[in-house]
């Protein structure tokens, strides 16, 4: 039967037991726990900072929604890059030891990750050049809707039918995209309405206008 002191000593030895080594960097359970906690905290805080910038900071300065979203995304990526480097350095991991892993990753990209890499780089181009941004009304290959999110790999477009369509970022760079609100957010939306030929156009127009006023009044009451 182990005593409490012997149990603590066994746990300490297990946590510090060297699992493997890459170059001069040794990996044990403590290292993995620290890396897990640090990366979790880094991604969580960077995400919270992005949301604070979009919802609280930028609206105070009347910054456009699309521009604010792009700036916040770039800030988050910079925080992640700096944070990852700091985490590795504070853990004592030799970054040069990961050259072999980066080489293997390059081979993997060459064989099967071209699409993911292409979409990620396209996402960075979209954020920096801003050919499209959050809130824009776009049309691509028959798909028409508003951009509600631009992520690292794909962009989400919400159609008039309230259907979210996930579009790879590379499509927004390599294909012909019609941006209706690139220079001006005041856009006209065409909604075809079919009626019988015998109906009076003036009466149909009156009904539509009355319905629009009714919807506006209902929205104000809510």
Description:
By secondary structure, the protein is an alpha+beta fold. Among the domains are: 4-96, no CATH class; 129-179, SH3 type barrels (Roll). It has seven helices and seven strands. It has a five-stranded antiparallel β-sheet. A hairpin with a 2-residue loop joins β1 and β2 (25-28). The longest helix is centred in the first third of the chain and has 32 residues, at 29-60. The chain starts with a helix and ends with a helix. The model has no long low-confidence stretch (mean pLDDT 80).
Offer a quick outline of the entry.
With 222 residues, the chain is of the alpha+beta class.
List its salient traits.
single chain; 222 residues; alpha+beta; SH3 type barrels; five-stranded antiparallel beta sheet; two-stranded antiparallel ribbon; 7 helices
SSE layout and pairing:
Elements: H1 4-15, E1 18-22, E2 25-28, H2 29-60, H3 65-91, H4 99-111, H5 114-129, E3 137-140, E4 143-150, E5 154-158, E6 164-168, H6 169-174, E7 177-179, H7 201-221
Distance from first to last alpha carbon: 69 Å
Class by alpha and beta content = alpha+beta
Query: In one word, what is the shape?
Result: elongated
Total DSSP helices: 7
Strand order of the largest sheet: 6-5-4-3-7
Major sheet details: 5 strands, antiparallel
**Residue share in helix:** 55-70%
Beta-strand percentage range = 15-25%
The low-confidence parts are none
Averaged pLDDT? 80
Order of helices and strands: HEEHHHHEEEEHEH
User: Which radius of gyration do the C-alpha atoms yield?
Assistant: 27 Å
**How many beta-strand runs?**
7
């Amino acid at each position: 039967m182990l005593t409490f002191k012997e149990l603590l000593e066994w746990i300490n030895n297990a946590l510090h037991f060297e699992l493997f080594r890459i170059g001069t960097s040794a990996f044990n359970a403590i290292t993995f726990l620290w890396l897990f906690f640090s990366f979790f905290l880094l991604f969580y805080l960077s995400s919270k900072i992005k949301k604070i910038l979009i919802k609280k900071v930028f609206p105070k300065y009347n910054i456009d929604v699309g521009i604010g979203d792009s700036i916040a995304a770039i800030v988050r990526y910079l925080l992640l890059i700096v944070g990852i480097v700091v985490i590795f350095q504070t853990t004592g991991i030799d970054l040069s030891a990961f050259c072999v892993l980066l080489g293997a990753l390059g081979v993997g990209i060459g064989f099967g990750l071209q699409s993911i890499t292409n979409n990620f780089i396209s996402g960075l181009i979209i954020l920096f050049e801003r050919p499209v941004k959050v809130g824009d009304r776009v049309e691509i290959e028959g798909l028409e809707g508003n951009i509600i999110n631009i992520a690292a790999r794909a962009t989400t477009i919400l159609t008039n039918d309230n259907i979210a369509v996930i579009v790879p970022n590379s499509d927004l760079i390599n294909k012909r995209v019609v941006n209706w609100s690139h220079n001006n957010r005041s856009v006209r939306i065409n909604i075809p309405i079919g009626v019988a030929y015998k109906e009076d156009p003036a009466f149909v127009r009156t009904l539509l206008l009355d319905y629009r006023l009714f919807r506006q009044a209902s929205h104000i009451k809510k």
